[in-house]
Amino acid sequence: xxxxxxxxxxxGFGKLQDIKEELIVERIEKLKEKKNxxxxxxxxxxxxxxxxxxxxxxxxxxxxxxxxxxxxxxLICGVNFMAxxxxxxxxxxxxxxxxxxxxxxxxxxxxxxxxxxxxxEHPDCEVLLYMNSLAKTIALADCVCTANNALKIAGxxxxxxxxxxxxxLGVSYYISKGTAKDIISIPDYAxxxxxNKISVDKLTDVKTAHPxxxxxxHPECRPDVQDMADYISSTGEIVNFCKESGKKEFIVAADxxxxxxxxxxxxxxxxxxxxxxxxxxxxxxxxxxxxxxALETEKPEVVVPCEIAxxxxxxxxxxxEFS
Length: 323
Ligand code: 13P
What we know:
Order of helices and strands: HHEHEHEHEHEHEHEHEHEHEHEHEHH
Largest sheet: 4 strands, parallel
CATH class of the largest domain: Alpha Beta
CATH superfamily of the largest domain: NadA-like
Strand order of the largest sheet: 2-1-3-4
Number of domains: 3
Strand content: 5-15%
Low-confidence stretches: 5-12
Bound molecules: 1,3-dihydroxyacetonephosphate
Distance between the termini: 65 Å
Oligomer: single chain
């Protein structure tokens, strides 16, 4: 009979890896103290990154976390629009983001010029932008929203004419269905490439395998997928809903990390991802190693030019007021 020997076990590499990670975590904690820094991480970040973070949440939770801190430095693990939002809300603090910085594919889909053009075409419409937009574009908006507060905020707007909303067709659908407001989507093709991969067929397969499970979905999912869901909200609210619900099994129609995180945090319930391939690689750019590097070098710094930051702060603060 053949015996398989794991070379890593023989050489103690597994243990060495653990010791290495422990040392890196220790280094991060020391650097945070020395620089009076805090770490904010989105729910889709790597688990070991979330473990060293002071605030872990969805875009809304990170906005509030960024707004309520009295540290000198903020390190943000997420994508570019989150890093810019933190910099806009904290002009007196150094804001850094590890690695090359993740680029949100949605935020790239609505340009400043395109929004300017849409505003000219619809001069009577108020502009509500999804937070997944760059600061330069947000500077042109009347208000911003996240998946968390989109319905509440859209409900206060567009009484006399449609609301110009972008970028994301799934969230546009979620708002128009949830508020009965007229929405003009700008642009009329923007989708999150990860959440848009979830199809009704795939979701039906998972539901057929687990008919008793409750379907929770992110509003960036396609309209027909949203129509199958029992609960739709932001990553942060999906976490709260699953923790508080009396139900025991959930199908998570979102980036697979949300399902893994919930399984870890709520072990007495069962979470089924729609597919293990639903991974936003941009949200995983932060690692323990590049966090150490960023804290040591205080780079790369997130810089939003003053005039853009001043203009973008107005619609972001309006959102904070309403939500
Ligand atoms: P949340 O605001 O729900 O955390 O989602 C952010 C995001 O970009 C998901 O793709």
